[in-house]
């Protein structure tokens, strides 16, 4: 790790023998560490582009609200991809496909495995699988609703969320970093819907407040 090594070692010292699901904490810290690097690169490129544009167009001003949302979306995507598809490998460009894997190995039958988890030995696995998949995609629905604001964007955002979720599941399947499962796509899509409705509610509330 480049940035969060000391934090990880502290957490490992305090929690490794006490928390059953410590590998999830390790994955989160490792993914955050990689995300910080890519965010710094993104900001550096953004500053360079803004500097060059300002030189050519002295009247140009940065739209900080838009840039903040773009930066947030970038952070979200990078972190999500490292948590799900890329996992622990820094050199993601060297990842290779698992031989013999095809879409036939995708778990297409919905909710069967989720029901098994619900009645399994570990309730944590069930709740993490359900709520984790929903919660991780709420920002997707919220942020894309912002980018497409003023348009009839619900179905467009939902399809984009489903497509991105399916891409993640296929990435996990073909790279051997996880399983491809239709349940995850369903729960991710629920998160997209919640995020979009939450943004619409916030926007409606603000518009109503401003009209008074």
How do the strands and helices of this protein lay out in sequence?
Layout: H1 5-15, H2 22-56, H3 64-86, H4 112-118, H5 123-135, H6 138-147, H7 154-175, H8 182-210
Organism: Aerococcus mictus
Keywords: Membrane, Transmembrane, Transmembrane helix
Domain VanZ-like: 73-200
Give a verbal description of the structure.
With 212 residues, this protein is mainly α. The chain has 2 domains: 1-95, no CATH class; 96-212, no CATH class. The chain has helices at 5-15, 22-56, 64-86, 112-118, 123-135, 138-147, 154-175, 182-210. The termini are far apart.
Low-confidence stretches: none
Q: Output the helix-strand order.
A: HHHHHHHH
Structural classification: mainly alpha
SS field, number of helical segments: 8
Write a short abstract of this structure.
This protein has 212 residues and is an all-alpha fold. It contains 8 helices and no strands. α6 crosses α7 (154-175) and α6 packs across α8.
Keywords:
2 domains, Teicoplanin_resist-assoc, 212 residues, 8 helices, VanZ family protein, VanZ-like, membrane, transmembrane, mainly alpha
């Amino acid at each position: 790790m480049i940035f969060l090594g000391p934090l990880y070692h502290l957490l490992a010292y305090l929690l490794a023998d006490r928390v059953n699901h410590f590998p999830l904490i390790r994955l989160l810290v490792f993914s955050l560490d990689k995300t910080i690097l890519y965010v710094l690169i993104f900001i550096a490129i953004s500053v360079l582009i803004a500097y060059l544009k300002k030189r050519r167009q002295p009247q140009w001003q940065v739209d900080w609200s838009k840039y903040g949302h773009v930066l947030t979306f970038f952070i979200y995507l990078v972190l999500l991809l490292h948590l799900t598809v890329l996992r622990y490998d820094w050199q993601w460009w060297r990842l290779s496909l698992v031989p013999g894997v095809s879409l036939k190995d995708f778990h297409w039958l919905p909710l069967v495995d989720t029901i098994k988890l619900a009645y399994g030995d570990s309730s944590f696995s069930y709740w993490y699988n359900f709520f984790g998949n929903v919660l991780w995609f709420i920002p997707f629905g919220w942020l894309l609703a912002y980018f497409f604001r003023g348009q009839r964007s619900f179905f467009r955002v939902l399809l984009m969320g489903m497509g991105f979720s399916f891409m993640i599941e296929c990435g996990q399947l073909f790279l051997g970093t996880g399983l491809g499962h239709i349940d995850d796509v369903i729960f991710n899509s629920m998160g997209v819907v919640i995020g979009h409705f939450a943004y619409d509610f916030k926007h409606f509330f603000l518009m109503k407040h401003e009209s008074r």
